[in-house]
Amino acid sequence: MTILYLILPLALCFAGAAVLAFAWTVRSGQLDDIETPPHRILFDDEPRRPGQRTLP
Amino acid sequence: MTAAAIAAPAALGCLHCHLPVPEGQRSAFCCAGCEVVHGAIAANGLEQFYALRATAEPAHTTDRAYAELDDPAFQRVHVVRAPDGQAQAALYLEDLRCGACAWLVESAPRCVDGITAIRVDLGRSRADVTWDPATTSLAAIARWLDRLGHAPHPYRGLAREALRRREDRALLIKLGVAGAAAGNLMLLAIALYAGMFGQMSRADAGFFRWASMCVAVPALGFAALPFFRTAIAALRARRLHLDLPLSIGILAGLSWGTANVIRGVGEIYFDSLAMLVFLLLVARWVVLRYQRRAGTAAELLLSLTPSRVHRLDGGEPVDVPVEAIVPGDVVRVLAGEVVPVDGEIVAGRSAFDVGLLTGESQPVEVAPGARAHAGTLNLAAAIEIRATAVGETTRVGKLVASIEAMSVKAPIERLVDRVAGRFVAVVSAAAALTLIGWSTRSVALGAEHAMALLIVTCPCALALATPLAVTVALGRAARRGVLVKGADALERLATPGTLFVDKTGTLTAGKLAVVTWRGDIDAAGLAAAVEAGSNHPIARALRGHAAPAGVATEVREELGRGIRGIVGGHAIVVGAPPWVRQRVRSQPVIEGWIAEIAERGETPIVIANDGVMVAVAGLADPIRPDAGAALRALEQLGWTVQLLSGDDVRVVQRVGGALGVPWWHCHGSVSPERKARAVVEARARGAVVMVGDGVNDAAAMAAASAGIAVSGAAEIAIEAADVYLRSPSISDVAATCAGAQATLATIRRNLKFSLAYNLVAGALAVTGLIHPLIAAAVMPLSSLTVLASSLRSKAFRS
Q1: Residues forming a β-bridge with B668
Q2: What is the pLDDT of residue B3?
Q3: Quick one: which of B422, B346, B416 has its CA closest to B383?
Q4: What CA dihedral angle connects B680, B683, B689 and B693, to 10 degrees?
């Protein structure tokens, strides 16, 4: 069971890193809008008929 | 995909919106608007829209020029320039509903040269546009968005939103920290509980306990900060708040657990505490999101008020933002537009709807030399106004300033805080008794049982009881078009008292219609024919009453008096009785009808055919069909309904009489100041709710215990109100009051459940029978019960 004395602090360090990563995503505004992105993944990247137009 | 490939079967109707195509129409579209929108979509290769969309409601294009968006005065306020020369602006887009709308708008950079990026936020109906000012202009982008059916408006209130965003992010980080701590502590606790029954050495158990402490103390100390802050603030203000027992429980648990870890004996409650803090933060976050959504929706309505003005520069109209107008400028106001400034009319005659400002439902005639006030609606014809006051110095602006001072409501003592107050007293007493009782055997044992009591009775379910019930209610209400600004508003609406209704727009349709007809019925068609070209509200009412019988020629309109013309060879005169009497011989029977109609509070209009008066029409604001049932529903809920209107007393009593409101509860000709006073007087006797839509109601709404603004309400009325209804009908008011009562009933039920759990856990702790496993099981169980009870709530269920 002595391995626990190494594994447990290590696991908690990982958890801490995950929390820090989460804090970073929140601070950088990635979670400000949680409604539109689920729709956005459905959008095609490529236009079917690329045509640039100038506005009238 | 081409237009032909997606051609819908005839049964589906219009290609774009699926509405039925009118018979005889030789195209696949129901109207020209859909054809234009479909053309704009197809021409840019964006047909994927039709595959993604979830609804097929017709798009509305306005065909505006949006020239005011390129005005320097507007750009200074709303446009940000990046260092690389790119410009950025936030726009509010109408009718953003689903993923397809977002996709269509975000495809803009592919279709329009000069747009670098558009990001859509569906929840806020907001689009952040980045563009190259050298290639395109904001007005051109706005026109493109408009053609897609998403009319853009400048997004106001950015500063307020930045502040909220900071708060939201801080709460979300705390939520994440608490969640991670709860998950990890649970794992450690499982190891400890398993070890209790197996063979775990003292050293190993001690290591797990120390690890738990190292996670719990910093993580919960940080995540529970909001509760500690509120508790301290409440203590300072000498008020009781639910966060006080929560903080006591959390702090007691953390310190007792830490002491036990250091001593090496006794229970630790870190896993239960972490779960408690996590659940509380989740509840708080969800409630905040719903409240924000309601608040944002109300603010977006503010963005919809007109911001462009037609200024006359050397006789030529130029569209400029309202901020650019200075006193002395001459502005043109077209029929159907809202007057943007206070000033004097220099050209044109028209009729004004001053209802929003004074509550009067009858239009007021205006001519050169008359005063015009910002916020009134120009009904009939284009007029020119020389501005004397703009912005905050207008009459409306001053009214707004006075309302802002008034609308700081004293916070009501919330039900749950009252319960929390007694709760603190009972638990403290019980803890003291436990300590004394067990200390007869050993002080250490007494301390342990007292601490256990404090921790297991930490009122988690109690704290969840209100937010969960409120969240469910707010969510359902929002789907019905009822936007509630906060939990307090629901509690204020739940205690019945006096309900003041402003008649205009809530009980009545809000526009004139013919309600009485005396005399020749065929004259109605002739009157409609003469009025065919007029924009006057009376003309619209007559047109709505009958189809025109022929085409009128030689039409002469005298604003505010009447109209005449030739229809099918007959000389027709339609107008107010005195003006018609000057032209046409009167008859006693007609005079009798005029008197009868005027007696009832309706506006008499006389129709004469070839020099003889033939009919009298009584015009009034007709009562909404659902108003009677809604008023009775409100009375059943315990409300006393009173009418409080700026309209003429006779008109108010006519409406009240038809709806069964006793005459002594019908108050007419009430000024905005009198309305507010009436509300203050009624508040001395109990709860008061003010329902209204105008600037004239806003002060009363602010003074009432709760204000309800209905659809079409003036900006300031929306701001002063606690609840905003998307429909203008009184039946939604009844539904809102019923929903508030049902929500409070759910809250009470939740409180009973959670108190029962606390009673059981507390009794076990006092007798020393509590086991940490029981504590760990009871807490989530009580929270789940409260959750289930909230979801079963009858509030706002459709």
Answers
A1: none
A2: 41
A3: B346
A4: 0
Count helices and strands in chain A by DSSP H and E runs: 2, 0
Specify which residues B556 forms β-bridges with: B564
ipTM of this predicted structure? 0.82
**Of B678, B676, B687, nearest to B717 (Cα)?**
B676
pLDDT of residue B5: 38
Classified as helix, coil or strand, B563 is strand
Model pTM score: 0.66
Active-site residues of B: which are they?
Answer: 502
DSSP symbols for B593-636: HHHHHHHTTPEEEEEEETTEEEEEEEEE-PBPTTHHHHHHHHHH
Give A-chain residues touching B165 at CB under 8 angstroms. Answer: 29, 32
Measure CB to CB from residue B165 to each of A32, A49, A56 and give the nearest one: A32
Torsion of CA B49, B51, B56, B62, to 10 degrees: 10
Which residues of A sit within 8 Å Cβ distance of B? 1, 4-5, 8-9, 11-12, 15, 18-19, 22-23, 26-27, 29, 31-36, 39-40, 42-44, 47-56
With H, G, I as helix, E, B as strand and everything else as coil, classify residue B87. Answer: strand
Residue whose structure tokens are 């409101």: B661
Local structure of residue B58 (DSSP, 8 states):
P
Q: Mapping DSSP to helix (H, G, I), strand (E, B) and coil, where does residue B49 land?
A: helix
Query: What is the Cβ-side half-sphere exposure of residue B651, based on CA atoms within 13 angstroms?
Result: 27
Alpha-carbon gap: B681 to the closest alpha carbon of chain A (Å): 45
* B298 band by pLDDT with thresholds 50, 70 and 90: low
Helices and strands, number each (H, E), in chain B: 29, 27
Taking the CB of residue A51, how many other CB atoms lie within 10 A of it? 11
Do A53 and B112 count as a contact with CB atoms less than 8 A apart?
A: yes
- B557: which residues sit within 8 A by CB, 6+ positions away? B534, B536, B563
C-alpha to C-alpha distance for B658 and B639, rounded to whole angstroms:
19
| CA distances to B111, B118, B138, B147, B233 from B114, in Å | 10, 11, 10, 18, 52
pLDDT of residue B67: 74
Q: What does residue B3 show for φ and ψ, rounded to 5 degrees?
A: -60, -40
Classify B458 as helix, strand or coil: coil
Cβ(B709)–Cβ(B692) under 8 Å? yes
